[in-house]
Design a protein that fits this description.
The chain is mainly alpha-helical and 369 residues long. Helix content is 66%, strand content 1%. A two-stranded antiparallel ribbon has the order 1-2. A hairpin with a 2-residue loop joins strand 1 and strand 2.
């Protein structure tokens, strides 16, 4: 086989056996980075901190654990959503959206290391789809939970169903070749007899994936839209999100674009024969689909508060630590950040003034020395 005679699609598949080399190189680079990060940490803390790694882990856990515990506590209330008002269901879906965005960000970040690029196919992309798309389908059900028949079964079934068929799509992408055997495809083009087609393993898995996607687009989502209309969603309703159909359209119109791009990309049938635009196309579609979905969810929440201000909670919601930190750097005035930092510094100096005055100048040490 002469490499010069291969197009991008053929090279994309031919380089699949190099996956272990790429994965090991990425792993060793991460280990190298962590090692020197540890050395830098030891230089900074010297002997003042006996177990710096454990201390760093506990510090990170103290920041993340409260938010994660609060999120998980809220997630466990999904069976009660039919008894909750619309504002609570919107808040629940907002937290699902946070998980969706974080999961997609992590999948995109770890894809750089090529750890799951088996056969040169980005497995983390499909795992990210399986997790995030399942949450998107769950949100569509939760938002109108009181009006969905067999709510609990519907939520569990649609999450498992969506996750499973996207994993099936990943398995199909790992197979090389066409959906049908080459000889049978040539016979079919001359006779146009379906009986002449001999489907491959790739064709079976991709056929299952396509059928499941059609079920979601033409059965599940129209069913939810019908429930929405029957419950009075076409007019102002305190217990239904007003822009629900817009949210559904962000899924209905964007999801079919993914298999279309897969057909022409190097991970699919390679109809373009150009592998350079493979990841670019999937990234753009991902940003359009999940970005429009997230913006529609934000629009639903803002519109519901504007339309029904009396349904807003009487107590002001607690701000997260991230909001409080970011507000210190947000100001309409150019010098707002410096002023706030200076005020904070002045307060700290007043509290620790006596100890700083008594400290001899010769004994002052910096963080790094």
């Amino acid at each position: 086989m002469v490499l010069e005679d291969l197009n991008d699609f053929e090279l994309f598949r031919a380089c699949g056996p190099l996956y272990p080399a790429f994965a090991i190189e990425s792993l060793t680079s991460i280990i190298l980075g962590l090692f020197f990060t540890y050395l830098a940490l030891r230089i900074v803390v010297r002997t003042d901190v006996k177990q710096p790694i454990n201390a760093v882990w506990l510090m990170i856990r103290d920041y993340i654990s409260p938010a994660a515990d609060q999120w998980w506590t809220l997630m466990k209330t999904w069976p009660d959503m039919p008894n909750k008002p619309c504002s609570d269901r919107i808040a629940y879906c907002r937290n699902l959206n946070i998980a969706m965005c974080i999961a997609q960000a992590l999948a995109a970040f770890f894809s750089v290391f090529r750890w799951l690029h088996i056969g040169n196919v980005n497995g983390l992309r499909y795992l990210g789809y399986a997790f995030t798309c399942s949450l998107m389908q769950a949100e569509l059900v939760v938002l109108i939970a009181p009006y969905v028949p067999c709510y609990k079964f519907n939520v569990v079934a649609v999450v498992i169903f969506t996750h499973a068929f996207l994993i099936c799509g990943w398995i199909g992408s790992l197979h090389e070749g066409f959906l049908f055997e080459d000889a049978s495809w040539e016979f079919f083009k001359s006779s146009w007899e379906v009986a002449d087609l001999v489907i491959t393993n790739k064709g079976i898995t991709i056929g299952i994936t396509a059928s499941c996607l059609c079920f979601l687009c033409f059965v599940q989502m129209p069913f939810l839209a019908l429930c929405y209309f029957c419950a009075g969603g076409c007019r102002a309703n305190r217990d239904l999100p007003y822009h629900y159909l817009r949210l559904m359209c962000s899924v209905w119109f964007t999801w079919p674009a993914f298999p279309c791009w897969w057909m022409v990309s190097a991970e699919g049938l390679g109809l373009f024969g150009d592998a350079k635009s493979n990841a670019v196309g999937f990234a753009i579609l991902n940003m359009i689909s999940k970005g429009s979905f997230t913006l529609s969810m934000l629009k639903i929440g803002a519109d519901h508060r504007r339309r029904w201000p009396d349904l807003a909670p009487a107590n002001k919601r607690n701000q997260s630590w991230l909001v409080e930190k970011l507000q210190c750097y947000e100001s309409e005035h150019p010098k707002g950040k410096e002023q706030k930092l200076q005020e904070k510094k002045t307060t700290e100096e007043e509290e620790d003034g006596e100890s700083k005055v008594q400290q001899p100048a010769a004994g002052v040490e910096t963080l790094w020395v």
